[in-house]
Amino acid sequence: MPTAASKTDTIVRRSFIVMIALLGVCATVIFIPLMGTTDVDEFWVKWTQKTLEYGLREGYAQANTDYPPGSFILLFLIAKVSTAMGASLFLGLKTALAATTVLSAALIGWWSRNPLIGIATLFALLLNTVAQAYLDVFLLPFVLAGMWLLERGRMGWAAFMFTAALSIKWQPALIAIFVVIYACDLFRHGSVTGQKRVQSLVLLGVGALPVVAVCLVAVSPQEIIYSFNRATGHAALSYQGLNPLWVLQYFQYQSAGLVGSGTEFYYQSLDPGLLVIAKRIFFVVYFGVVGLFAWRGRGFRSLLWFSLTGYLTYCVLNVGVHENHYFWAMILAIFIAARSSTSAVPMTVFIALSANLNLYLFYGQDGRSPFISPASGPATMMATVVLSLLNLGCLIICVLRCALHDFRSDAEPSASRPVVAS
Hints:
By secondary structure, this protein is mostly helical.
């Protein structure tokens, strides 16, 4: 029976958890007026204006974007709601980002059964989502719901959620292949057999159809293909994503005497041949991780670890990585901490700090006050080199963990494996 002292300690602990959560909500509200990065003015606002003026189909075509149509649909809806409520588009967008951030953190706290993980997630998200106003967080509830459903074998609804996330930004495509392999493994080793298994496979495809149908009706299919080609055809080794290619690109510009020239962080590779080589290295390592998962992956925890490692392969080795793309590495690491043991916490803390430092170095706390600039001296720029190499070290550790860990010990016993259903 709990003693009076233990009851008091429990009350005190819960009280401080509530107070910390309220501090996080206050910080979220404080960040709403911040202007965000120049993407707000150059892209989000202009895209929304085009959809309001020309409609979704023509507005999406005129934007020449590298985003899927779901982003435009969301921005269009936010603009409509903001207008109906007499608010500006900027205020409506920042409020939607803030609300989605708080909701996502609360859901992660619920999923992990640990409110402190949810609160830590809230603080980890704020710079990307509310202060600098990137759109990544709009995907998070869908991906989180997809993972929750996948863990329970609800394949049709999981497919719907992941496809909805993919319709907003392309990054979830990097983990989609791991999700499909995990689903196929469930079909092979789960508790459903025979005709029911075939029905479940059909539901996996059917779950994606509503989202695909909405996107194809809203915009031209050809424009979606153009968007994907733009997203995968960037002409720089790195767009401020701190990785070895950023280091190589920086020293290229330094050797050419262009560092400090005002060039906006080297948005063009000086050697196009390096782009081809870097892409080939990325594909080899990425599909190596995919193959390793198909061979050794067992259970939901292995899905999370291999998804993180595959996505980190993109962040660290691929070309055209932007400063905000580490967001999903941070989220997948948080998922691991939420569904695994405390042994994953140091890794999660590192990735969260690294992702936020990447943002802060280039755009500051408000999206318009960078700590470094194209004219920064070598001593300041060396901080980006060190962080890039640390990110490479993180990838190497994750690859080794996936290669050496016995995931069969993590897999659910047959009696507790999820039942494959719609």
